[in-house]
Amino acid sequence: MEEPRLPVRSTSVWAQRSFLLVFLPALALALIGIAVLSVSGNILLPFQKVVTLEGKMASKREFFEDKEVQRLLLKHHYKIHITSTGSREVAIRDISTYDFVFPSGQPAGDLITNQRAAAGEFGKVHRPFVSPIVLPTYRAYAETLAAAGLATAQTGSGDKPLYYTLKTKKLLDEIDKKSRWSDIGIQNRGVINTNRILVQSPDVCDSNSAGTYLALVAFTWRGTGDDIPSSDKAADQRARAIKPLMEQGMPASDVFRTYISPEGKAIAPVVVAYEHQFLTYQAQYKAEKQQLDSDRVLLYPDSQFVTQPQFIALNKESDKLGELITDDPELRQRALELGFRTLDPTGEVEGDRLTEFLEERDIPVPSIRQDDTHTAMPKLRYLERMISIVGECAPLDIPAGASE
To answer: Residue 39 contacts by C-beta under 8 Å, 6 or more apart in sequence?
Structure first.
């Protein structure tokens, strides 16, 4: 009789279906992960130390919260955790638990560097980019201001200009007279608004943009063009004079968010913000809808202060980060894409680079003087006195010889 034949099964793990069902998807995920890390330039990242730094800042958090900025920083082994607060709040609160701070303008930055220098503590300043103060509004309001002789459309803007130059002193005159929007003809643009003409700013006790707008108002209101308060008495008098002209109170993070919301026009038709916020909004709107938001426009005050954000490193590791965001070509390019005006090694604005970026995306290029970074601000001591009076907040003790 023929002996029975017994089947012999392979014991190879590769032949076991249950194993393959688990292993192959896991292998695919691993290969995809390697591919993604390779493309992003982070293929060795899992094997390298990533440094997490704690930062405190106001509106410039938008730079670090950007996904592309986060990817580029991770490529350089940095991960950033942000605590958001107003710029002046950054300067007057304890920052001992942070690696760096990034106030939105020079006054708050000077407060910090002066304090750290007096205490003999580390404080290195980096200035990667600037962004001027602007007044975002809506087309109907800009056209009403233009018809009333309070603004002019910038040349070369076409039938629907995106940018207007505001005659700041004339607007302040109307605010001082308690004029209403209906008094200057807003109803002729199909809008019913009998409220007083006002410019809504964040709380001046917290926000650099509000403090800068305060300086702009103080510089313009019944001044001679170079009439900046230069004594305690003059600063106090000017603050009391301009206080009725300033409408403030919104948290800094909410002003522009309110402006781009559907309810913004009814809540605050003219607000204080930074140029980069508006340009970024229009670039994102254009990318999503293949057209500009032609209802939202910008007023550029004819008296202009460009804010100078200061990245202040509080230790050696954050100093390396400051050098990186200032000098790295990819991070500089991304700053441009987020609407900032980058600075060259001499500290001058690279106007041509932002122009090229906007033209590539068919976004109109605003006209703004290139010397605005040199426009004088009040000395820190006098600006702080005006802030405390206008905002009714506790005054800070700034030495008489504090830097500008």
So the answer is: none
